[in-house]
Model the fold of this input.
Amino acid sequence: MTNLRVSLVQTDLVWEDPSANCAQLEEKLAVLAGLTDVVILPEMFATGFSMTPAGAEIGKGPALQWMQVQAKRLGALVVGSLKVKHNTSFYNRLYAVEPSGAYTSYDKRHLFRMGGEHKFYQSGDQQVIVTYKGWEIALFVCYDLRFPVWSRNVGLAYDAAIYVANWPAPRANAWRTLLQARAIENLAYVVGVNRVGMDANDLAYAGDSLLVNFKGDLLLDLKSKDQILTSELSHEALSEFRTKFPAHLDADSFSLSSL
Done:
């Protein structure tokens, strides 16, 4: 099993302007070509955390096509969520796009009611794990982080979990703490990618994007900077720790039967 290079893209976003966001991200991502395996963008990277139809993707829209172009150009899996309209409903949909153009999607399960997200978007009902370069990677979005049952790594089904977010600065401590908790309890790497800057609702975002290992140790901490950092995940180290400390064998068994 080869190591996996993961790049966390912590950036400010232009409000409800997909073209501007894709253009600035394309320039930033150029330095990663051939040097990483997975590129992770923040939640709703094309629009910001918006509750209007502005900038929504319909079908295989321009932002998804842009992700496909970037995945091919960088030779990496590109992960990020978009505002998507399907029929008459809207979804906060996370895409994992491979260099071949193939993609997997996950619709955010837990909608942030304190921000009115549940009034505008439809909730997903399927957990999603994508296989890439031999790694099993679970996909989650922002508020999902607060719900450990949904994130539960039943039977060690995944090696790493990705949470993309627009997580406001006043709750930064919860963000950092929960990312470490999800890694520890699930015996998996956890990557959390948040944005920085201020949005049109005067909400401030402090970043704090983290890469956490299976013991809860911080491998990357982007703090509040607009920056991209890359680190390497070791499957050998993960497997050795799971063998030495098999806490999953004592986990309570359950299934999610009523979504």
Remarks:
- The chain has a mean pLDDT of 97.
- Residues 172-186 form the longest helix (15 residues).
- The helical segments are 18-29, 62-74, 117-120, 148-151, 172-186, 235-244.
